[in-house]
Structures are given as C-alpha cells and as structure tokens.
Amino acid sequence: MIDSHSNVLSKVSQHRDVIQNEYARVNVAKGKLENLCRELQRHSKAVAVSFTIRQELLESVCVCTIHVSLPSCNCHDKIFH
Predict the structure, then answer these.
(1) In this predicted model, what pLDDT tens digit does every residue of 49-60 receive, in sequence order?
(2) DSSP assignment letter at 53
(3) Which of 16, 17, 26, 39 has CA 20 to 30 A from 54's CA?
(4) Which of 18, 53, 42 is nearest to 10 (CA)?
(5) Does residue 38 contact residue 27 with C-beta atoms inside 8 Å?
C-alpha cells in the first residue's frame, strides 16, 4: 500500500512538473507576442504618420502647380527648402 501511494505521489509530482514547464513556456510565448504587438503598433503608427505627411505634401504640390505662374506664390520654398 505504501508503494502504491508512493507511486501515485511520484506520478502527481511528475505531472505537476510538466504543467509548470508548460506554464513557463506559455509565459515566454506570451511575452514575445506582447512585444511583437507593441512593435507592430509602433510600426503602424509610423506608417500612418508617414502617410499623412505624404498626403499633405501632395496637396501642397497640387496647390503649388495651380499657383506656379503667380509671383506671390511661395509654395516652392515650403516644399523644396
């Protein structure tokens, strides 16, 4: 009977160790995924800012081409200098 309890205790202990190792691996994977999500959010924000800047620049260029013949137009200076 003592051998039976010892055997059960050994199996439970092994099972606990397996679960703890799996838990540790899951936490490492979770941390990596969270880091990737933060990196993706930073990249997404940078792309959005870049897109906004490009749109504003294109709008300035379009306005500038309309005013290019006017001597008072200083759009060129804002864009190219």
Answers:
(1) 999 998 888 877
(2) H
(3) 39
(4) 18
(5) no
